[in-house]
C-alpha cells in the first residue's frame, strides 16, 4: 500500500520531546519529503507496526496524524507549487 503521512505535534514542553521521536519513527518506515510529511510503500503489517509505535507518542487530545492511502503509487500524482525539491523522485 502506498501512503502519504502528515503529522502535527503541539509544541508545548512535552511536544518538544515527542516531535523527534515521531520523526525518527516515521523515517524508519517511510521517506521524508518535507517537514512533517513522509511517503512510501508499506504492507498492512508494517502499517500496523508503525501505528503501534506512533501510538506511544501521539497525544489524542493535542496532536494529529493523517495517513492518505492508495493501493498503488501510480494512482497518485505529485504536483509542486513553489520550490521544487523532490527528494524522492528516484522512488516515484
Order of helices and strands: EHEEHE
Percent of residues in β-strands? 25-35%
* Spatial ordering of strands, largest sheet: 2-3-1-4
* Class per helix and strand makeup: alpha+beta
Return residue spans where pLDDT drops below 50 for at least 5 consecutive residues.
none
Radius of gyration: 14 Å
Principal-axis shape equals globular
Taking the alpha carbons of the first and last residues, their distance comes to 14 Å
Mean pLDDT: 88
The tally of beta strands, per DSSP, is 4
Counting H and I runs of at least 4 residues, what is the number of helices? 2
Helix content: 25-40%
Outline the biggest β-sheet. Answer: 4 strands, antiparallel
Provide the fold topology.
Elements: E1 2-8, H1 13-29, E2 31-34, E3 37-41, H2 44-54, E4 64-70
Antiparallel strand pairs: 1-3, 1-4, 2-3
Describe what this molecule looks like in 3D:
It is a single chain. The protein is built from two helices and four strands. The protein has helices spanning 13-29, 44-54, and strands at residues 2-8, 31-34, 37-41, 64-70. Strand 2 (31-34) and strand 3 form a beta hairpin. It is globular, with a radius of gyration of 14 Å. The two termini are 14 Å apart.
Amino acid at each position: 500500500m502506498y501512503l502519504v503521512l502528515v503529522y502535527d505535534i503541539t509544541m508545548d514542553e512535552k511536544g518538544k520531546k515527542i516531535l523527534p521521536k515521531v520523526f525518527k519513527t516515521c523515517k524508519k518506515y517511510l521517506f521524508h519529503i518535507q517537514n512533517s510529511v513522509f511517503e512510501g510503500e508499506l504492507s498492512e503489517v508494517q502499517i500496523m507496526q508503525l501505528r503501534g509505535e506512533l501510538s506511544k507518542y501521539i497525544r489524542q487530545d493535542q496532536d494529529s496524524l493523517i495517513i492518505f492511502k492508495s493501493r498503488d503509487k501510480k494512482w497518485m500524482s505529485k504536483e509542486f507549487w513553489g520550490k521544487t525539491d523532490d527528494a524522492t523522485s528516484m522512488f516515484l
